[in-house]
Design a protein that fits this description.
The structure holds 2 protein chains of 2 kinds. Chain A is mainly beta. Chain A has strands spanning about 5, 10-15, 20-25, 30-35, 45-50, 55, 65-70, 75-80, 90-95, 105, 110-114. In chain A, the strands form 2 sheets. In chain A, strands 2, 4, 5, 6, 9, 10 and 11 form a 7-stranded mixed β-sheet that branches. In chain A, strands 1-3-8-7 form a 4-stranded antiparallel β-sheet, with no helix packed on it. The radius of gyration of chain B is 13 Å and the shape is globular. The chains are: A mainly beta, B mainly beta. At the A-B interface, strand 5 and strand 10 of A face strand 4 of B.
C-alpha cells in the first residue's frame, strides 16, 4: 500500500513570497489533515478535511494560509505572503472513516523562509 | 493547556525494554490515550491506543493505571531503530477535542 505522498520535500523562499505544498493521501482515505511542525515542537493541526469539505480549520491563519481539496483526493496548502515564522515542516496525514484513530503521515515539506 | 506530561528524554540499552511514562491526571471518562512516535526527518507514526484496558500489538504494549491518570508505553526489546520522539496524546471523540494535540514528547535514545 502506497503511503501519503508530499511534494516538494524542501522549499526555500524569501519573506512575502508565496508557496504551495501538495499532498496525495492513501487511496480511499476520506479524511485529510495538514499539520505545521515548528522545530523542537510537536505537530499542530492546521486544517482537517473529510472528502472535499472542511471539518476543522480553527487553527489555520486564514489571512495568509489557504487549503483546498477540490475532488476529495489530493490537497494543496498555500501560504501567501510568507513570514519568517512560517519556517517549519508541513505534514500531511490521512485516515479512513472506519479507522479514524490511526492517522498516516507523509514525510513532510520542510519550508525555510528567509 | 497541556493534557499530558512526559519526561523530555530517556535512554535505553539495545535489547532491553523501554518503558515510557505519561501522566494524564485530568483525563476524562471518554478520552483515549494514544501513542505516536516520530523518527528523525519522518512524519509521526501511530503505535497504539487504549481507553482503560491494557493493550498490546506487534509494536508495543500500553499499560494504563486503574485510575487512568497515567500510562506506560512498553517497547519490549528496543532496537536502534526505535530511537525517536514518542508522543502521548489524550483524545476525545467529540467536537474539537477529536483532533490529535501533540505535546513535546519524550526523546528516546536507544544505545548500542
Amino acid at each position: 500500500e502506497a503511503g501519503v505522498a508530499q511534494s516538494p520535500r524542501y522549499k526555500i523562499i524569501e519573506k512575502r513570497q508565496s508557496v504551495a505544498f501538495w499532498c496525495n493521501p492513501i487511496s480511499g482515505h476520506a479524511t485529510l489533515y495538514w499539520y505545521q511542525q515548528i522545530l523542537g515542537q510537536g505537530p499542530k493541526l492546521l486544517i482537517q478535511f473529510q472528502n472535499n469539505g472542511v471539518v476543522d480549520d480553527s487553527q489555520l491563519p486564514k489571512d495568509r494560509f489557504s487549503a483546498e481539496r477540490l475532488k476529495g483526493v489530493d490537497s494543496t496548502l498555500k501560504i501567501q505572503p510568507a513570514k519568517l515564522e512560517d519556517s517549519a515542516v508541513y505534514l500531511c496525514a490521512s485516515s479512513s472513516l472506519d479507522r479514524e484513530e490511526t492517522q498516516y503521515f507523509g514525510p513532510g515539506t520542510r519550508l525555510l523562509v528567509l | 493547556d497541556a493534557k499530558t506530561t512526559q519526561p523530555p528524554s530517556m535512554d535505553c540499552a539495545e535489547g532491553r525494554a523501554a518503558n515510557l511514562p505519561c501522566n494524564h491526571s485530568t483525563i476524562s471518562g471518554n478520552e483515549y490515550v494514544y501513542w505516536y512516535r516520530q523518527i528523525h526527518s519522518q512524519g509521526p507514526q501511530y503505535i497504539i491506543h487504549g481507553l482503560k484496558n491494557n493493550e498490546t500489538n506487534e509494536m508495543a504494549s500500553l499499560i494504563i493505571t486503574e485510575d487512568r491518570k497515567s500510562s506506560t508505553l512498553i517497547l519490549p526489546h528496543a532496537t536502534l531503530r526505535d530511537t525517536a520522539v514518542y508522543y502521548c496524546i489524550v483524545r476525545s471523540w467529540s467536537g474539537s477535542a477529536r483532533q490529535l494535540t501533540f505535546g513535546s514528547g519524550t526523546q528516546l535514545t536507544v544505545l548500542p
